Amino acid sequence: MMKKLTIIVLAALAITATACHKKTSNDADVDLIHNPMSAQGYNGDEKMPVITFDSDVHDFGRLSAGESISYSFHFRNTGSADLVISSTSATCGCTVADYPRGRIAPGGEGYITVTFKSAGKSGQQLQEVTVISNAQPSHTRLRIKAQVGR
């Protein structure tokens, strides 16, 4: 019985020791590419992508209620590593964003197309889309404005 208990305790220790190993610099490099949230721990030494937008605000001007309108925000990867956009989120269900999937090499560019549906809206509208990527910083906000009339 004591021998069985000793084997179980040793097995548990072995599993714990291998599960809690310290990351090597190679592990960190892989995380920067595959885990967009890892950019938050950026210490300035690693090569990082940088997402640079021509503009982070677009004003649609006056819209009629019920209109659906889109704008494409142009960006470049001005950093020194591949850019990966993992997701976008909007402040309202009336706003959605489409973004490029896959890697964008340093110097590469692309568009994030934001669509605003004005159904049920009136007056001045300000919506935000948060772009989540492996860039530094990892969260970038895009804003759209519109004056919706009836």
Descriptive overview:
The relative contact order is 0.23. The chain has a single domain, classed as Immunoglobulin-like, CATH 2.60.40.10. With 150 residues, the protein is α+β, with helices and mostly antiparallel strands. The strands form 2 sheets. The protein has a 5-stranded mixed β-sheet with strand order 2-9-8-4-6, with no helix packed on it. Strands 1-3-7-5 form a 4-stranded antiparallel β-sheet, with no helix packed on it. It starts with a helix and ends with a strand. The longest helix has 18 residues, at 2-19. The protein has helices at 2-19, 25-34; strands at residues 51-53, 57-64, 68-77, 83-90, 95-98, 103-104, 109-117, 123-133, 139-149.
- Under the CATH scheme, which architecture would be assigned? Sandwich
What is the name of the CATH topology?
Immunoglobulin-like
CATH level 1 class label: Mainly Beta
Number of strands: 9
Strand order of the largest sheet: 2-9-8-4-6
- Could you say which overall geometry the principal axes of the C-alpha atoms support? flat
- The assigned structural class equals alpha+beta
Could you name the CATH homologous superfamily? Immunoglobulins
Question: Approximately what portion of the residues adopt beta-strand conformation?
Answer: 35-45%
> If you compute it from the alpha carbons, what radius of gyration comes out, rounded to the nearest whole angstrom?
23 Å
Tell me the count of domains.
Answer: 1
Number of helices: 2
Q: Residue share in helices?
A: 10-25%
What's the SSE pattern? HHEEEEEEEEE
Instruction: Outline the biggest β-sheet.
Output: 5 strands, mixed
- Return the average pLDDT rounded to an integer: 81
Give the quaternary arrangement of the chains. Answer: single chain
**Low confidence ranges:** 16-38
